[in-house]
Amino acid sequence: MAERADIDHPLPYASWESRGYWEGAGRGEIVLQRNRATGFVQHKPRGVCMDTLSADDLEYFVAIGRGTVYTFTVTNQNQAAGFAEACPYVLAYVDLEEGPRLMTNIVGCEPDEVHIGMNVVADFVSQERDDDEAFAVPVFRPA
Amino acid sequence: MSESEAFPRNREAFPGNREAFPGNREAFPKSIAIAGVYEHPSRFSPDKTEFQIMAECARGALDDAGLHRDDIDGLFGASMSMGMMGIVDLAEYLNLKPDYIDGSNIGGSSFVSHVNHAAAAINAGMCEVALILYGSTAASNSVAIGTGMSGASRDPGAGFNGPYGMTTVGSYAMYAHRHMHLYGTTSEQLAEIAVTMRHHASLNPLAKMRTPITVDDVMSSRVISSPLHLLDCCIISDGGGAIIVTSHERARDLAKAPVRVLGCGEAVVHQEVGQPDMLTIAAKQSGARAMGMAGVSHSDLDLAMIYDSFTITVLATLENLGFCAPGEGGDFVSGGRIGLGGEIPVNPDGGGLSSNHPGMRGIFLVIEAVKQLRGECGERQVGGAQLALAHGTGGSLGDKHSGATLVLGTD
User: Fold this and answer.
1) How confident is the model at residue B155 (pLDDT cuts 50, 70, 90)?
2) Touching check for B184 and chain A: CB below 8 Å?
3) Do B393 and B307 meet the contact criterion of CB atoms below 8 Å apart?
């Protein structure tokens, strides 16, 4: 059986609201936002707290980078470039210890070894790109 | 024990809310009705455009109602390709000058919500005869709706999912895995839904896939995105449809028996923050509102039209609408309960799994419900149908989605 290719992730592009997340990933960090007054943690990042709809007290922090698989699917068919060659690959939601749930890929094990509740840690895929952005794509592997 | 005892239809969760919503007469004092419908008979139309299909559907619904093009003063529509100002282009194509225009697009459920919006507009006196349209050439354009549309996007809002290869099937598959993990739901139970829809399609002369299938056929079809097999997925077709909504007063003088709009609701769900339970979908909110507004309970309903993009969509929607409790869906869809002659027949037309799925299916949920309530459905007719529910899902259950519910009834 032919060795399957790694996923060739589409390049992320950042707005000023999402830049903190993608630059954090480029440093090997999962960067989240929280309201320092209330402790409310949010993802996806945005210019306001989802709870108060205010930018007051909104700050970034670095998550510990650990979580559990909430659910997943082994993708056998996706015609999109970068994924077709990588099938079967695992698409998943991971619940971070800090609360938010991220869509991601589970790598570093066979697809049939992935299960709901599995402990996972963040890993970061660097990409070549023709602009000056130092981003990476967060994925997760078995802890 | 009878089937109705096994599944007591969750009356406590959905008591019908008669006091909060005293019914259609209060919310819509004018009383709203659907006066005309048309389902395009084609499933493959490489020689037609979307707008051409919509025009043929408009003609069909006008003839069905006994109305003229110039009677239309409200235009509602959405499609996979109509972008900004698409509804304006559609008005031009049809040579219409409506007083009320709504091109809102919340995914495949849009046309169910358009009935809601049209009812509100007519009740408010903003228009009197509303035309709702959909058309698509998804099949002849070879649009890979389920497995080819993920990938790069320069839209920063989409960027958090884009790198990971989420397909439409994959999103629903993640929902299915979670349901199986929590409740022990099986692939065989999901397959029962596909088998039932195919049986219904075998009774529908317009359906695209009419050869009966078995649970084994579904289980042995290839896995597209685990745990969903090929036959857990809807087909891709061309097609379109039209609905004409007006006041009951106007409708009763027209060609066909009016079908009353008794209740409506719509809702959105997203998976953004706070670890929401993925298994709670928009149908819970929109369904409770629609049924409360209509003042009906589950046992009153004669049939349900449930958006069946995938088998799991039907199971999830039935649970969230309260036909059974969370986790009971696997048993509920088995044993013929959702088939013709069963406790609550679902999608007598064969649904998106077997009849047609031209990208967005919401309009056909309403069209088939109206035809059933008029008794026009031949071999697939639900005998004596007086009350129907239609629920559309737009987007992806495992990601962001919308839901819109209607309760329709005979006079």
Assistant:
1) low
2) no
3) yes
